[in-house]
């Protein structure tokens, strides 16, 4: 036999085997179709459609829940960027109020600044801003930033001795941790 004849014979053998496989698969499909009545086929299709509908409904419910949670978070923290920009202003305001004037005019000016400061603090409180408690508290790395460690009598280990810069929270989120000295 020549090489060409051998190749042709192999192709015919492969085609014959494929025909046998296709015939047996078709027979099995017909057998399955014969076994399943049209009612059963419809019931299966209805069950499949119900499953798909339930999955789509669950996906939609999850989407609605996530969207609602994102909107609530956005509304809850909507003022965060403005307040973060105002924190240095608050610090400077507090430093200005620490000045002890001697002249009568300066005292009345300071009194007016104190009234404005209290009003400003009240507005921040209404927005959900809280000052983080420090002196006498136990150091919490989530709320405080330790910049110094000192040895002070009257304070326990890891207790805050002094506040160097106020820290602020917006509801449950820390805007700026308080800078503190901690007892060793």
From TrEMBL:
Residue ranges of coiled coil: 39-66
Keywords: Chaperone, Coiled coil, Cytoplasm, Stress response
GO annotation (BP), single: protein folding
UniProt keyword Cytoplasm, yes or no: yes
Keyword Chaperone applies: yes
Record-linked InterPro entries: GrpE (IPR000740), GrpE_CC (IPR013805), GrpE_head (IPR009012)
CDD domains: GrpE
Molecular functions (GO terms): adenyl-nucleotide exchange factor activity; protein homodimerization activity; protein-folding chaperone binding; unfolded protein binding
Localisation per UniProt entry: Cytoplasm
Family annotation (SUPFAM superfamilies): Coiled-coil domain of nucleotide exchange factor GrpE (SSF58014), Head domain of nucleotide exchange factor GrpE (SSF51064)
Signal peptide per UniProt: none
Pfam families per record: GrpE (PF01025)
Segments for region (Disordered): 1-24
Gene Ontology CC, one term: cytoplasm
UniProt feature, compositional bias: Basic and acidic residues: 1-20
NCBIfam families reported for this sequence: PRK14140.1
Subunit field text: Homodimer.
Protein family membership: Belongs to the GrpE family.
Task performed by this protein: Participates actively in the response to hyperosmotic and heat shock by preventing the aggregation of stress-denatured proteins, in association with DnaK and GrpE. It is the nucleotide exchange factor for DnaK and may function as a thermosensor. Unfolded proteins bind initially to DnaJ; upon interaction with the DnaJ-bound protein, DnaK hydrolyzes its bound ATP, resulting in the formation of a stable complex. GrpE releases ADP from DnaK; ATP binding to DnaK triggers the release of the substrate protein, thus completing the reaction cycle.
Protein name (record): Protein GrpE
